[in-house]
Each structure stands twice: as C-alpha cells, then as structure tokens.
Amino acid sequence: MRKQYGALVVGAGIGGIRAALDLAVTGHKVALIDRRPNHGGILSQLDHQFPSDHCGMCRMLPLMARDSSSQFCLRKGLFHDNIDIMLSTELVELEGEPGKFFISLNRKSTLIDPAKCVSCGKCSEVCPVRVPSEFNAGLTERAAVYLPVPHAIPNHYVVDLDNCLRCWKCHEACPTGAIDFKFDERKDFHILVVDTDPAVAAMMRESLGEQNFPLHFAASGSEAVDMLVVDERIRLVLLGMNFDDMGADRVLTRSRELRADRPVVLLAEAGQTEQAADLVMQGAREYLVKPLEAKQFVPWLDKLYMRIMSDTVEELEVGAVVLAGGFECYNPKMDPQGAQDLWSYDHPGVLTAVEFERLMSGTGPTGGKLLRPGDGAAVNKVAWIQCVGSRDVQKGADFCSAVCCMFSIKEAMLAKKATHGAVDATIFYMDMRTSGKDYQRYRNQAEGEGGVRFVRTRPHSVLPTEDGHGLVVEYMAEDGTLVAEVYDMVVL
What is the pTM of this model? Predict the structure, then answer.
C-alpha cells in the first residue's frame, strides 16, 4: 500500500528544507528526500554566510511556529512532526497528474541500524580504508564507515559500500551489533548461473565456496526457464548470452514475468556489450564482461548481495512534487579543456572556494588556521580569482553564478580575521556583482576597513615559482602592462 503525502520535496539542501518547512507548518505531510546520506546540502559545510559572517541557516525557519518547527540548528538537525526525512534516497519513477502523483523511491541502506548505533567511532577506527572526505572537500580522508556530517543531530555512522574492502573489522568492533552485513541470510540467497562456458561454472564454484551462497547451474536457456518456474528460492540470476535454444532476452523476459523484483545480471562477451546494454534497458540490472576474475567478481557479488538484501523501494502517493536538486561545484580536475594545468590545481596552494571554506572552519583539517594544505606552510598572501568555470562560453557556462563575488569577499574577510589582519588578500574580478541587500556595503567595508585589495582584471594563468613553493599570478593591468605577482595561495 502506498504511503500518502501532501508533497514530495526532492533535495534536502537549504532550498528543500525551506520548502518542506513551509509546507509542514501549513499542515501538509511532507516527504523530504536526498540522495546523499545527510541533509543540509553545501551549507552544512559552511560556517559563515555573508553579509553578516554568521551561520544564518536558522533564519530559513518559517515565520510561524518556530518552536514546534525545530529545536536545533538546521546545520545539525531538522525535526518536524509533518516531515519524514529519507536520506540516501533517489526518485526513480514518477507518473500521474497534479494532485495525485505516484512515486517510486530507491532507498539505499547505510548497513548500520540508527537505533543501535551510539556513534562511538570504534568502527571507523579499525577500518583500513582511507578515501577523500566529501565533507572536508577532499582536504582530509575518511574511512569506509564514517559520519557524513560530524555535527549533525541525530547522528549515526554509515557504510560506504563502494569503497568497503569486506574485511568485516567494523562489524567485529561494533559494541552494539549495529552493523549488519547479512551474514546469516546468505544460506538462503540462492543464485542461478546460466552459461554454456564450463570455465565460468568452475570459477564460481571455487571462488564462492566460502561465501555460503547456494549455487545452481544451467547450460541452456530452456533449462534455466524450467528452474525458474519450479524453484522460487532463486534470488539472483547470472545470465550468459550464448545459447542455441533461445536468446538471453527471452530468458530475461520470462524471469521478470515470474518474479519482477528478481535481479538479472548479464555475463557478456567482449563483443556483446552493445547488446547487453540494450537488455539493461529492458530490465536487466547490469552486465559484466567476461572473462571474470575471482578477485574482482567475489567483492562485486558480495556488495550486490548486500544491496539486494538491504535496499528498499518506497511507493508513495503525493499531491505535489518540489524539485530542489541543488548544484555541483565546478571541479578543475573534471574540466576537459585542461583547467587543472591552466590554474596549477595540482599545486597544494591552489584551492577551490569550498576547499578554502573547509580550511578556515573550526571543524576543518587545520582547526581554522590559515595553513597551506599538503605542506602546512604559513600563508602570507592569498589571491582569489573570480569567474573560474562561469561566464565562459567555451565551457558552455555563459552565466554568472551570482554568489562567487560575495563568497570571495567573505573568505577574504575570514582570512583577515584568522590572521588578525596580517594576510595580504587580493580579489581579481571581471565585475563585482553585489546584488543583494547590504551586499555593496559589505564589499565597501572589506575594501575600506578590512584592507582587501580589489583588482579588475582576469588573470590568464597561475604557475608555480621556480622553487615550487609560491604561485605566480599573471594578469594585464588597466594601463596595458603585464604584471606578475607571487602568492602563497590561490583560491579559484
């Protein structure tokens, strides 16, 4: 039976939070979802907001019923009787009409029971994996079991299954048994392998011998269909694509007719990837390309098993849908035109604005001290370069992001405050767009009282100095002369 809501809000950033709260205080039941394991969006990473330099997220609370809306800072927690928050959740299907939409949601399990997790951190301490931390914009590393946002309320650890090594150390270290890798259920997870290649069957028998999965084998399409008809225990089908009696598409169709929720994974030859991709469009979960190697296949199967056993599908009926999808920040590494080399982004002194924000945060990698990441060197001169990744027709981004000017002014003021005014802060800009209330006053204060230097130009490159410690910013001055200045840090 479908759960009924007045509205579905897709995206739990500050825009989605505000929309959900506005609907909730007027009596509507709201489902608030986000594909990430935490709410708050990018503002959960920011300690200060212009033009007051305070946090300010709580100003987004509705003007009515503030006490019943939330008793916590919105960066930490969101509570309302009319809001159900579903994290690690994606919208996969929407149909219907205004007033009556039918929704399907895919909810990924965190593999940790929030009712049992006490956030002791022992699981993260023993985890051998280290990957860049999303919360700290890649300036620090996290384990495969981690807190998405350290200051959130309520807070429990989550398992990053994509980077998990399956060492099970976190499961053994958990004092409350909150981490569930579905060990006991493996004996009931029957797998049907349908392939004409005896080497595939031999590899699976050998590599999966210790995994406790019951295996069944079929060498033809008709044999596979017969087994699917009589054996309802089969939970997963690994389907080859070279049968003489029938095509893999017929086996896939029959499997879905018998049990629509049973995943089918295709085992394709190197030349069959296009055909396999078409079958994925027809309902197969995914495809693997042979030959299969046990070193990669076993972890893949284990993670697929945990997803099948732990993830759920939510069916909702809602009256309205609000899309608050947010945005992704520009990443020089992903620029096809080589912006990483143009701006020397691989240098430890070149940061994006979000990276600099985390650097200056009290919960960041340096505890709020202005030290260069990578080598910990002191920073005496910082340059901000505006319109990197925007207002550029060649990048397909001919728009102004409308926030970067104020963002850079705020960060320059934060740097000044952190160093008691000692740091030399320069902002290179095309047009300083201070279009909000009190924004121009904020800019004037930064230049007058704060001592921030504003230079109207567009630097064409950032190059490391000969010793590699500093960064040379080259630009054309207003009188037409070429100027080269050395900085300790450049923020894009």
Answer: 0.86
